[in-house]
Amino acid sequence: MFFSEMTARDAFKLTKQKMTEYQTEFLERMNAIEVDAHWFRRVFHTFAASFLFYYLLPDEEWINFGKIVLPVIIVLCMVVVEYRRIRGDLDHQRFFGLRNYEKKRPASYLYFGVAVLLLFLLFPQQIAIPCILCASFTDPIIGESRYYLGKKRAYAIGFVVSMFFFLVSWYRADWWVLILVPLLGATGAVMGEARKLKLVDDDFMIQMLPAILLLLMWQGCLLLGVNILPPKMILPLS
Amino acid sequence: MTNPRNETIQKLLLRLELWFAPLLIIVPLVVSFFFFWEWYIKGFSARSSLYDGELLISLLVLIGNLMFDIFFLRSLRILKKKQ
User: Is A30 inside any structural domain?
Assistant: First the structure.
């Protein structure tokens, strides 16, 4: 009886020790994983296309309220985090993938978030969707092609890709709108990406410039009595 | 003396990129699947073209993300090999 008790206790101890060793080894292995900051940034961009899920949210009173409040709260949290980081309360090293020039100014993810928030709250989805797609995909595509093909070709590719997004998003519009909108939108997106401003990040401009151009066009046409806006692309869940 | 296991855990907790990386890959795929499902149930099955937009968004999100995910995952593998 005593012998078997000892064995059970020993077995338990041994198993516990083995488990701890295994855990430690696993944690060390995890910690040894290195993430490439360059591709991490690219994937962060493409991830933003998931925000389009916002337009699937049901059209009910309390959800509509949440659709306004929640994005505002998220962006406010980002503002607080960035404010603390720039002030030095939060260690810069903890923010993986930040560029050097972002050390003393708000990081691009904040500009990205503010632009998406403005698009969600102030623009119709027909305008917002292609602009978010441009920021999600055109920006990294231009970034990658610039590296291999040079600036001019990269912007040309960016222009074609952006045109495609506007074309797909407005596919239900009239034919003449389908010519004008992609041209105007893609021009805005590429200009927003190409013009590097000191205070405003290109992640903000690539979304806002085409959105404002299209908003002006839409409102201008409305004044002339023509509504160029196609039906909604994404219908909310019912 | 601090426990090396706890030290490793603390280091891991600080490495936000390791926590974000799976999310950055999985969430777009789930969203894309959701859009596709929406199109399939309400559009394709009900023979309605009203939901074609969902299909287009689903494909754009899926293809766009997969394109860059492949390079991202390859970069992880390359860095691991270098180690």
Answer: no
Please give the tally of structural domains in chain A.
Answer: 1
The one-letter amino acid at B26? I
Burial (Cβ within 10 Å: 0-12, 13-18, ≥19) of residue A87: exposed
Which residues, other chains included, contact A26 with Cβ-Cβ below 8 Å and sequence gap of 6+? none
pLDDT for B17: 77
Lowest mean pLDDT among A184-193, A217-226, B3-12: B3-12
Closest Cβ–Cβ partner in B20, B28, B79 for A50: B28
**Which segments in chain B show pLDDT lower than 50?**
none
Select the more confidently predicted residue: A154 or B17.
A154
CA distance B37 to chain A (A): 12
Residue A135: inside a domain: yes
The tally of CA atoms less than 13 A away on the side-chain side of residue A63 is 10
**Is A35's CB within 8 Å of B67's CB?**
no
CA distance B49 to B36: 13
Contact A32 B83 (CB under 8 A): yes
**What does the longest C-alpha to C-alpha distance in chain A come to?**
97
CA atoms within 13 A on the CB side of A166: 29
Cβ <8 Å between A42 and B53: no
A96 with B16: CB under 8 angstroms?
Answer: yes
Predicted confidence at residue A5, as pLDDT, reads 63
Contacts of A21 (CB under 8 A, 6+ apart): none
- Check residue A128 and give its pLDDT: 97
- Decide if A231 is inside a domain: no
Average pLDDT over residues A113-121: 97
Residue span of the structural domain in which A73 resides: 37-223
CB A185 within 8 A of CB A159: no
Closest by Cβ to A24, choosing from B5, B14, B25 = B5
Average pLDDT over residues A5-30: 82
- Rounded Cα gap, residues A167 and A159, in angstroms: 12
